[in-house]
Amino acid sequence: MAESHSQLVRFSAGPLVNPEIGKPRRPMEGDTVFRSMTGFEGNGGRASSGIWESTAGKFRADTTGYIEFGYILEGECRVVDPDGTVHALRAGDPFVMPEGYKGHWEVDAFVKKVWFVSLTN
Fold this sequence. Notes:
Largest sheet: 8 strands, antiparallel
CATH topology: Jelly Rolls
Radius of gyration: 14 Å
Number of strands: 8
CATH superfamily: Jelly Rolls
CATH architecture: Sandwich
Number of domains: 1
Oligomer: single chain
Helix content: under 10%
Structural class: mainly beta
Shape: globular
């Protein structure tokens, strides 16, 4: 995954090859497992994009220091704002978590997204 500013960068949204396996840093319920793969890094490491999958569970989000654009590829979930507003997301739904967003995710079975992150500080 070399940084290049003169060519289009493509990466597969299909089955993840050698994904990183992880767990939520701020779990709330369940035994959630994340699988992720970075497909692009640029701007001196200040921007990146890839694919992320999550099994069932409930976990907190905290985008302190970055902005995230996401697009749901498969599955369904809910993202709940700190004030309790529920955003039901399913395949085909784009979203943005602004810098400092502190809501939480609720995944009933499985969700997969493509993401793009830009560091803000």
